[in-house]
């Protein structure tokens, strides 16, 4: 066996270690054959099913062939470990998840039962125990997180006592006893793998699902069961627990603490000032909570984070305004309807709900005082100001109440009386002297004025809310103290049940006749209205379809006998739609409901529509050609004479030979009403160059014989040049044919209007050959 085989089996082996000679004899082919043999021994005739995960097995259920093979094997322990781990790796390749978990459980149970059978030798016990925990570590690393581990966890819970045994030779342990240690074999590698899993769960906590939290809870419970309370790994060697405690655990009231922790000061203010303002007022000045030592640092910290919060908002608004200014340079359309906005908000609220940390809490005085880190993180959150403003509101209400007590004798007397009844030995004597004025000034400077001035320049809306809270609180105190809620003395609670309200009658009883010039106006009130009074003849579409079929069966539709009751037909179509929706394609504006029962009607209607569409297409093409011809004529008249072009023939320059075209010469657009208008760059017959002598152009009639022109040109013999009716095409025959058919294809305007009036049917009957020739020839 070589080093490569060890790595494949999952063994960290040093190639410098000398293995026994008998291990070197085993080759890869022998290992594979042994692995295949062990797999057959384990799973070929196995009767174990999925229930093996939730119950413990016995040695009798293990395959006897595998036990015999490993008990009498000539190979040492390392070779047996390689074979079992290779079997374990082969099991991991199985696609069926349940089969994979069951086979994992069978192989691990086999290791445990081999440990029990070889309990006489301590070395064998240690070997099979180490192999059992090694396979358990491999199973944790090969399963999917978290669902695969949750499916495999019943096996761990049912074999928890097997894990606790460790290297112990005892078959059973006492309740609560364990032989494992987190930093010693055989459990050390397992704890290392578990720590990696827990770290992965913490890092990806934002993507965690309920299954992740369930797995984390099961892992922690498993560690608590396997490790003893006095485990060395649980010792707080670095003092991490003490770092989370306040700096001063015991704090006397009359002792000033400088530089105390933020959470400690916050808790002091909550417990000694906000939650018991009356006790703070009537306490001796030397026993009160010193606001400068506790409240001032907390207020500085709170307002500092509030200032950063508003600075961030101001910067973000500035960026958004700049982006809006650049992206929306045009006027924004103002849509009157907001239904789309509401539907969009309702739709997206399901996909992107508001985070829980941004949702206001219903209880204003509810704070997680048991978790200092959570409280501090909430108060220092740069993106959520709810908890800071919650504390500011509580502090301002408390300060307002204390100011009312210190500044008003009636309010002080009222609270002193109530406080004396609950606190018999309290100092209820309130001396209005210099200390009282100093207390009022201190509260005003530290709380009321500072908060008002801070939010006045940053958040006017919240400052208005605080002003309304103070105003309503003072009115409530005045009403409670001075008037004693006497305004409610006249309120009488009902002693009897309220009379039953009669049901509202929505039926019309009667109206008097209104004289508006029409004595029959009062009859309008007698019309029956409502959905319940609408009579429905057919409740089912099947019955309506059968009745309509009988009605149209004996009718003659050769002539136009369609029903003009369109509203009744629409009503019948709505009833038939649910059952005969695929047959409604036979209904159109010409056939009506009769198209459902007479196919010839819908066929005739479709044929008529196709004929009309063809006529319409021909008309469109005709008028497009006509408009284009007029535009080209106007363009040709305005264009300058073209340059001379050599076409490689003996024909005089500027003429066409055999129907070939010259630049600036006769084109199909130059033809009008069956005539040809000919122009040439140098020699023009009725062209632009003869305008000085004869302004009227000369026209050659297309229907006459081909015109032969014999111009005298220097250095060339006089030739007869035959001009084709159309010039401008490379193919002479094709252009000649198209030119001869041009007059037939383009009728006059009066003739076209007559065709459209008569439906183009009469013209087709008179000259079908010309019609076919016209259709084949493109303009």
TrEMBL record:
User: Record's InterPro entries?
Assistant: THO_THOC1
* Signal sequence segment: none
Q: What residue spans carry the region label Disordered?
A: 631-779
Q: Where is the composition biased (Basic and acidic residues)?
A: 742-754, 763-779
Q: Where is the composition biased (Polar residues)?
A: 667-678, 721-735
Identification of the protein by name: LADA_0F02366g1_1
Species per Swiss-Prot/TrEMBL record = Lachancea dasiensis
Q: Species lineage, top-down?
A: Eukaryota, Fungi, Dikarya, Ascomycota, Saccharomycotina
